[in-house]
Input
Amino acid sequence: MTKQTYYLFMILMIFSLAGCNQDVKQVIIEIPYKEYNHPVVLGDNMFVNVNRDANNLFDVDALIQYNMKTGEEKILYESEYEESAMQSTQVNEDWLVWVDSSVDGYYEKILAMNLANGEIQTLAETNPEYLTLLTPSLYKEYVAWTELNDEMQVEVKLHNLETNETISVGNINEYSLYHAFVHLHDNKLLWTDSDNGNGYYYLYDLESKSTDKYQAPKRYPGYATYSNGKIFAIHFDNNDWTMQDFGYLDLKTNEYHSLEHGQYISTFDSSNDRLAILDDEHHFYFYEFQDDELVPLEVTIMEEINPMHIFFDPEGHLIIYIDDEEDTDHSRVGVIYP
Output
C-alpha cells in the first residue's frame, strides 16, 4: 500500500467512524503532516499551512490545498522566510487569505489569492523594528486587520479585495495583545480598545460606514467576536489570564451576560447562532442560540479526541486542533459543519 493510498484509506475510515447526529455533521480528517497551522474548509478541500521538513518542526513553510476525499494535495504558496510560521488562513468562495511570517514574528505580511485566477497580492506588512501582530479577518470581499503606521499609531484597516482599496476606519488607543484582533461578520467590523480606565467595543457598519461604541464590563475586552447581534469577549482588569470574565453583550437589549465554564476560559469562538468554548482543563462546550437561549449541541467526536484549540472559519466550520499523544508523522483535525 502506497503512502497516499494509506492516507486515503484512513480518511474514508474516519469519515465513516466519526460521530454524526441529525443536528451536527462532524468528522475527523487525517493530514500527512506532523505540524500545521490554521486549517480551513471549503467544499471538499482543506487549506492549511504545513511543515514539510521533519528535521525542523517549528518551520511551517507551505500553504497547501488538500482534498479531504482523495488525499490529493497542491502547494499554493511557499514562505519567503528561511524559518517561517505561516498562519491565519481564511477562505471563502472567492478569496483565500493568510499570513506569511518569520518564526520570531518580526516579519509578517498578509497575502490574498483570487481563487478564480490564482493571482496573489500583498495587503500589508509589519515594520520589523516593532513586534506587532497581523491578524486578518475575511468576510465576503473584505479583509480587516490592525496595523502600526509610520506615525506609531495603530489603525484598524479595511481592504476591499475587488476594488483594491484600503481605508482606515479607526485607531487603537491602547494597543495590546487583547486589542490586536478584529472580527468581520454580518456586514460588521468589530474591534476593542481601552481608554481612561474603561474598555470599549467598536462596531463599524460596512454599508452605512458608521461606527457604534459600547462600554465593556472591564478595562481590557479581548479576542472579541460579533455574531447574531451579540458581542462575545474575554474581559480582564490586568494581565492575569485566570482573572477574567467571559460573556456577551446583547445589542438588542444592551444587557451583558456573563458565562462561567471551568475556572476560566482557554479559548472560544462564535459563528452565526453557534458558540464554542474550551475551558482551562480543555473541556469542550458547544451551543446554539435558540430563542435567545443557549442550547447544548451533541458532539460525539469529542469522545475520541483531546481538543487543544478551536476556531470557526469564515464558512462556519468549527475547526478543532487535536492533541495526539502518539508520536506520528501525521495529524488529525476535527471539523464540525455549519
